[in-house]
Amino acid sequence: MSEPGTRAGRVRIDAALVGRLVAAQFPQWADLPVRPVAQRGWDNRTFHLGEHMTVRLPSAGAYVAQVEKEHAWLPFLAPRLPLAVPVPLAKGAPGEGYPWAWSVYPWIDGETAALERIADPVQFAADLANFLAALQGIETAGGPAPGAHNFHRGGPLATYDAETRRAIAALDGRIDAGAVSEVWEAAQSAPWRGPPVWLHGDVSAGNLLVRDGRLGAVIDFGCCGVGDPACDLAIAWTLFEGAGREAFRAGLPLDDAAWARGRGWTLWKALIVWAALPAANPQGAEASRRIIDDLIADASV
Which of 199, 196, 231, 214 is nearest to 77 (CA)? Predict the structure, then answer.
């Protein structure tokens, strides 16, 4: 049975609903205007609350566990990290027809990462590596192990083996299925044997904020946990290239096996995204193709 809302388990969330929730539960903020942020997101819907806060609401039941996790762990992680990360200000309860807990956060200035906004891609890559190295160095006792709350980020790639192989079969003729399968099998043949470390779980361009051309903040820790950090390496192929990719790798204390698994995580996502794209989206297909070609080339070096 699906969660309340749409057939996909999603709930209709708009500024009017957010305004009612805030007024009912946080009357001190009831007079502040509510408006959507520029990028609405998928796992969560985010709205400006006045000029200095945001309201963040899970869009479906699969993302609800992330609320408690972020409230429990972001106050612990934030002071131990070299860049700004969002720390919740308040937690809302179900109400006004909305069925789940939700959060109020401070607004963090910045634009989502894109190469044209980055002054020095090599420095940006090094700064991100430094952030992730600091994250991996934080004490993990009691931290959330991989599971449904973060879609098994930090766990074994075998979780997504069947899905990946179905995508390879579906795309056969549009990709070099043999070379892609080699990258995937190599990733699964490089098991992680280290101690669990903190991982962000979704290091993507949309979760990196640029200020004055530099990396200024890392947001959206909904997929965070403790485990194998290889999933955090996908940004090496989805955003960086050339010297930037090399600087990112040089800044992280990870072995070749970790990078093989990182290629695997990146390949899985690129394949399932491409396989799900409609034929009318050639731009999306081309982006996935570029990533997959980079992964094949990188694995062969």
Answer: 199
- The values of phi and psi at residue 145, to 5°, are -70, 160
Alpha-helical (H) ranges within the chain are 15-25, 65-77, 121-136, 161-171, 177-188, 235-238, 242-250, 256-276, 282-300
Determine the structural domain holding residue 53 and report its residue range.
15-106
Residue 6 lies in a domain: no
pLDDT tens for 242-288 read 999 999 999 998 999 999 999 999 999 999 999 999 988 999 999 99
Q: The domain that contains 53 carries what CATH number?
A: 3.30.200.20
d(CA 55, CA 15): 10
For residue 210, give both structure tokens.
């640029």
Q: What angle do CA 194, 250, 179 make, to 5 degrees?
A: 75
- In-domain check, residue 56: yes
Fill in the DSSP letter of residue 38.
S
What angle (nearest 5°) sits at the alpha carbon of residue 256, between those of residues 254 and 257?
90
Sequence letter at residue 33: P
Is there a domain that residue 224 lies in?
yes
Structure-block tokens of residue 211: 């200020």
